[in-house]
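re: ur question from yesterday

yeah so i grabbed the chain u mentioned. its 292 aa long if i counted rite. heres the sequnce exactly as i have it in my notes:
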Amino acid sequence: MDAVGNTEAVKTAAYVINTSIPTASATPAGGLYRTAQSVTLNCNPGATGGTCVAIYYTTDGSTPSTSSATYSSPISVTVTTTLKFFAENSVGNTSTLHTETYRIDEAAPTTTAIPSGRAYKEAQSITLTCEDGSGSGCTATYYTLDGSTPTRSSSTYSTPLSISANTTLKFFSVDAAGNEESVRTESYVIDTVNPTVAAAPAGGLYNSARDVTLTCTDNSGGSGCGSIHYTTDGSTPDTGSATYTAPISVSADTTLKFVAVDNVGNVSTVRTEVYTFDTDAPTTTATPAAAR
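ran it thru and got these structure tokens back, copy pasting raw so excuse formatting
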């Protein structure tokens, strides 16, 4: 009302006091994954109404502000990422700051057997070593010793494996993200048996020169023959003696000694063959001599 009594019509103003704080969330939540993730950010404006107007975020670990990127579509996370975000509702209230860390590990680990598979002359203690580089870390190594393909139900490696007979070892490892390497195979031949060696023809008395062939035989499942060494002067041969490569021509009285070595260094006993030659024809006489 003014000084002369004029009165205006009654006016009405309604005030809504909205103290609701919005909430924000990410789907999926942060964690360890073995594939890239598509992250959706969600906003709830609060209990007393209003609407969400924006979600602000960063992917470099820095703290976001209302000047940061505004969420509009799912965020592709392909590498390890620290996602920080908060929501704002229609009256300007903001949520607490949320942080989700995504670890993306797409690489399988690598497992090595030490020593590697080959032929040995004694039992071996095999260590399986898993490496995962900058990934999520090795969690388990599975193996078999019978040549079958291992699975996650197979024996879990924990201590060195003792191998004392011919063995096919198969194994693989898994990392914390669930990445699984391809099955690896190492074959071990444990050869503790000396080879044998023989000469053909054997030593004896002959009336003409002979070509002597030396033959090495290794045990079934062994490492195989490596070399034969020999002497023809009666001395005892060793691995530094002449190496047999072709038949040995013997034309005079000879003491041939020889020894075989397999591929892991097992040595046969020394064999000896004595060759004697008589090339003179006999002479026959008649007694009494014939009359003239």
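noticed a couple things. Residues 178 and 200 are 62 Å apart (CA to CA). also The chain has three domains: 23-104, 110-190, 196-277.
anyway ttyl
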